[in-house]
Amino acid sequence: MAELKAFLFDLDGTLIDSEVIYVEAVRNALRAKGYNLTKKESEALVYGISAQDIFLETVRRFPGSYTSTDDMGIHIREHFYALKAERDIRIHGSIALLRDLSREFPVAIVSGSPREDIAAGIEMMEISDDVSFYLGTEDYSPGKPDPTCYLLAAEKCEVSPQNCLVFEDSSAGVVAAKRAGAWCIALKRNGAAPQDLSSADAIYADLSEFDLSRFERDFKDSTSAE
Fold it and tell me: In which domain, by residue range, is 23 found?
């Protein structure tokens, strides 16, 4: 395998368990406007999808619900912050891994969330000194599963995508990473919404179990055998 030189983390569902709350917030915000979604419908609308694409799908299905992504964000954040105040949504094993990798390598966050929300997440996790840069929905288009976000991140790290390892939790994110030509590890936490993660190179229930030397050794052996 190519030498790993940069590490790229998704945010929601990978570093912080915000997507569960975001699903509830989207559902509550739409309910306040008179639109009722089931939990399953809300998950399908949100998981692994950029804020811009959530907005486009929402106004397609519920015309007149929001006038812009900013308008949608204002309504959803009201519910989101109320829910977040009640819970610790940090995924501690993932945060510890990010900090550990940042001691030797460039580490970035590549998310479909607005930059404002990513910045708030970084502050909450206290990792501002560990993250080289972050990309949000304003920085690229189209969103995941298109590979543009990870191609851009590799370019900003000044490495080839083949030298990047991505940590994701959604099917859209895994597909985006693999289409970019990067290596990808999927996080499949107990109780998380079902996702097709089959195209990931490896799947972990907790990223604290990840060992870089072992990963490189295992895949060096497997690619050599091919």
Answer: 18-84
Which of the listed residues 84, 103, 130 is the one where a domain comes to its end? 84
For 71, other C-beta atoms within 10 Å of its C-beta total: 12
pTM, rounded to two decimals: 0.80
Domain termination site, one of 84, 116, 137? 84
Altogether, the residues listed in the chain come to a count of 226
| Omega within 30 of 0 (cis) for the link into 63 | no
CA proximity to 113, closest of 9, 218, 194: 9
CA 12 to chain centre: 5
Dist. CA 81–CA 73, nearest whole Å: 11
Rounded-to-integer distance, Cα 115 and Cα 131, Å: 14
Given a contact cutoff of 8 angstroms between Cβ atoms, the answer to whether 164 and 7 are in contact is: yes
Rounded to whole angstroms, how far apart are CA atoms 61 and 76? 17
Residue 115: CB partners within 8 Å, gap ≥ 6?
Answer: 134, 136, 137, 138, 139
Query: Could you report the per-residue pLDDT of 163-190, keeping only the tens digit for each?
Result: 999 999 999 999 999 999 999 999 999 8
Q: Over 51-105, what HEC string results?
A: HHHHHHHHHHHCCCCCCCHHHHHHHHHHHHHHHHCCCCCECHHHHHHHHHHHCCC
